[in-house]
Design a protein that fits this description.
The chain has 320 residues and is mainly beta. Helices cover 6% and strands 46% of the residues. The chain has a 7-stranded antiparallel beta sheet with strand order 1-22-19-24-17-14-13, with no helix packed on it. It has a 7-stranded antiparallel beta sheet with strand order 2-3-4-11-6-9-12. A hairpin with a 4-residue loop joins strand 7 and strand 8. It is globular. 45% of the residues are buried.
Length: 320
């Protein structure tokens, strides 16, 4: 979920292909209600374009009267984006938003100077049960946009460009690609797409974005002669045109964009270019100074008793 409850993943030992700058194998963590795989941040690569956090949640099967309950928690100086393949999540936030997040839709929440939100399973979904599967990402904001007013933007699946031809099906979540442009207006240059390839089909990925990566969802793909299975993050070499071939019916997320102008610091759910801003956010949350979530005021996640320093993250550079 967009709440960060588990440690960073450990990397696999497999060598990258020439076309691949970095290969990350996320470590799966069982949260009880579902399995989560975290690909970013990792010790070898913390950011790809503005993307500083990349989680695969599920797939998970919820029976009758089961669901997720991520209690209200805060964010600052970042934007979150929840994208589902299956199931539904009920989003509420301190702006008064109440939105059912459904497959194929964009749900972009700009934290800016501060926002609080919760993610739960609705009563209707609990009654019937559901299968839940999706991706949650955080995107760092440019320094001059970090303290923007918080906002929540929703675009239904029908509003997003969909390319469907010759065994290639791609939904453009953010940015411009495939001759189309997403209606989502992000704070910096961002690419994000959900791509499906039929077995035997190929798709070129041009280097129009400075930083690019693939996260494999299902099936098997081939890049520069090497094969990759699901749940792997492939950071592509800059400026190289690359072709992806599907060895079986396959699905992957294509994402990236312009790198941030400087490092970001990460602690719990807080991301900022300034250490002192994270310290201030800790104090604000501990003292109850963030706004509450209408309809979900009675509960919250306490500030962790974690005295470690925020980690410094930059694109492709190890933590110090």
């Amino acid at each position: 979920m967009s709440w960060s409850p588990q440690p960073d993943p450990k990397l696999g030992d497999r060598a990258s292909a020439e076309a691949i700058e970095t290969l990350i194998v996320p470590r799966a963590v069982d949260l009880g209600e579902m399995m989560v795989r975290r690909a970013l941040p990792s010790t070898k690569r913390q950011m790809v374009g503005p993307f500083i956090f990349f989680d695969q949640m599920g797939p998970a099967e919820f029976l009758t009267d089961q669901g997720i309950d991520v209690r209200p928690h805060p964010h600052i100086n970042l934007a979150t984006l929840t994208y589902l393949f299956e199931g539904e999540i009920l989003h509420r936030d301190s702006l008064g938003t109440e939105q059912a997040i459904q497959p194929g839709a964009v749900n972009w929440m700009r934290a800016g100077r501060g926002i609080v939100h919760s993610e739960r399973t609705s009563l209707d979904r609990r009654r019937d049960g559901q299968r839940l599967f999706g991706i949650q990402t955080w995107m760092a904001l440019p320094e001059d946009r970090e303290e923007d007013d918080p906002a929540f933007l929703h675009h239904g699946a029908e509003a997003l460009p969909l390319i469907d031809a010759d065994g290639v099906k791609a939904r453009l979540i953010a940015g411009s690609a495939f001759g189309e442009t997403s209606p989502l207006r992000t704070a910096s240059q961002t690419l994000y797409a959900d791509v499906q390839l039929a077995a035997g089909r190929s798709m070129p990925i041009d280097p129009s974005y400075e930083e690019r990566a693939l996260y494999t969802i299902s099936g098997e793909i081939e890049v520069a002669g090497d094969s990759f299975e699901p749940a792997q993050l492939l950071v592509l070499r800059p400026e190289d045109p690359i072709t992806i071939k599907a060895k079986s019916d396959a699905r992957f997320m294509l994402f990236g964009g312009a790198p941030m102008g400087g490092p970001r610091y990460i602690w719990w759910n807080f991301v900022s270019s300034r250490l002192e801003r994270i310290e201030a956010a800790k104090e604000e949350w501990a003292r109850g100074r963030f706004d509450t979530v209408p309809g979900d005021e009675a509960d919250f996640i306490p500030l962790p008793e974690d005295h470690t320093q925020p980690r410094r993250a930059t694109g492709g550079v190890n933590y110090p």
